[in-house]
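User: Can you model how guanosine-5'-diphosphate sits in this protein?
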Amino acid sequence: NVFKEGLTKTRTAFVEAVEELITRRKKIDEDFYEELEEILIGADVGVNTVMTLIDDLRAEVKKRKIEDAAELQPVLSEKLVELLKGDDHAELTMAPPGETTVILFVGVNGVGKTTTIGKLAHRFKSEGKSVLLAAGDTFRAGAIEQLEVWGQRVGVEVIRQASGSDPAAVMFDAVQAAKQRNVDVLLCDTAGRLQNKTNLMEELNKIFRVIKREMPNAPHEVLMVLDATTGQNALSQARLFGEKSGVTGLVLTKLDGTAKGGIVVAIRNELNLPVKLVGLGEGMNDLQTFDSVQFVHALFA
Ligand code: GDP
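Assistant: Here's the modeled complex, given as structure tokens:
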């Protein structure tokens, strides 16, 4: 199971707490539910989602006439999978063969955008695809260089201009280069500053327009990157950003760095956006396509 190692912290904190509760309380009663609620909220599943989950559990426990707490774990797994699944479509949307797939990355500074682009570039390269990166974060000092470090590491070229230049111009260059060279995948970084939010939205809109003018079917994905270690903050960022910027899916990074992996459940349940990828470490292989069944199995394994 590809998620298992990266979820060690969450498994240790969350599952061990549930197991302890089951062993100690033995019977499923009001006190049991109350404590379970606390554990789930502690794992960052989020109050609204916890309420839904507990209601689902109650109904199922009643239906199956379960009294013994020891029998609850499979039911909990089942309900978690249901919540995570929604209408699952974690696979990335790709252009038809022969055309360039354009993927735009948005999100606040430090969430792991550059790293995710590097990892994804590595994945596509290993699949035999040609990849080009666009250094669209011309605002943050060092962002371009950092993308170039990843470019060198995985062996793909970065289209860049000087720091401070117009990101839409960088995108124009990148799209032209991708067309000329018949590149399979173009991965585009964007600025993630939180201040001047309106300007950032305008900047993203301009980037969209430039890409669309050159490639009417692009971008194929707009992925918002969220840092799982920021918990409920990630959720509010997603709400703020996601509504306006044409986001098609989410990347949840640093799941290896948190004991509160329940944030995935909250995000999946409270936002109408699929979680496409999860980051489980800093290395270039530490990126996985999200899979709800595997994810829950990794927790309870
Ligand atoms: P950006 O500002 O959004 O481009 O963020 P970066 O890609 O520079 O990432 C910020 C930090 O988070 C870096 O130190 C990365 O190594 C680290 N990081 C990114 N993704 C992951 C992940 O999945 N797990 C862990 N542990 N660290 C990550």
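A couple of observations from the model: The mean pLDDT is 92. The chain has eleven helices and eight strands.
User: Helpful, thanks.
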